[in-house]
Amino acid sequence: MSDAPLNHPASLSELFWAFNRLALQGFGGVLAVAQRELVERLRWLSREEFLEVFAVAQVLPGPNILNLSLMLGDRFFGIRGAFTAMAGMLLFPLMIVIGMAALYGQMADHPIVANTVRGMGAVSAGLIVATALKLMPSLRRSPMGAWPALGLAVLTLIGVLWLRLPLPQLLLGLGGLGMALAGWQLYRADRNSEAPKQ
Question: How many Å apart are CA 47 and CA 53, to the nearest integer?
Fold first, then answer.
């Protein structure tokens, strides 16, 4: 990633339309689109900042991407920015979803519609995996180190896919372990920096 300085939305309307564009591209999962838009295209966040903000957004109640929009809107323009970003995320997509839900209610039994929905699920999963792979180099800058972070990711996959653990257990167990490891590494780094030079 370039070391060029990050950008800042120039106005509330730019913030609104950026999150609106992000939401309208996010069929089946908006994580991949959010990373591409906010980090690569708009450069409002570095990869590391995106990972930090998204991690917080995931553990808060409510949809991840909506939490992320609220946090970024607040970061740039305070409470007005939070509501503007949220409006951008919800206004037009809400209208589309209501229209599609009404249409789906009438056509859900049709085999083509059912297969289309299954296909969208597979594409969504692929987008999430592609985003994870793209963000993986950022693990090198993780306070706990790349290998422990990768180990936690593998344990999370095992917990979700094989053991089918509920989200609260994963967050409390592996999330707590991750925070403890990161805290310990930060503590050690701080102690090493304070140690007298010989």
Answer: 10
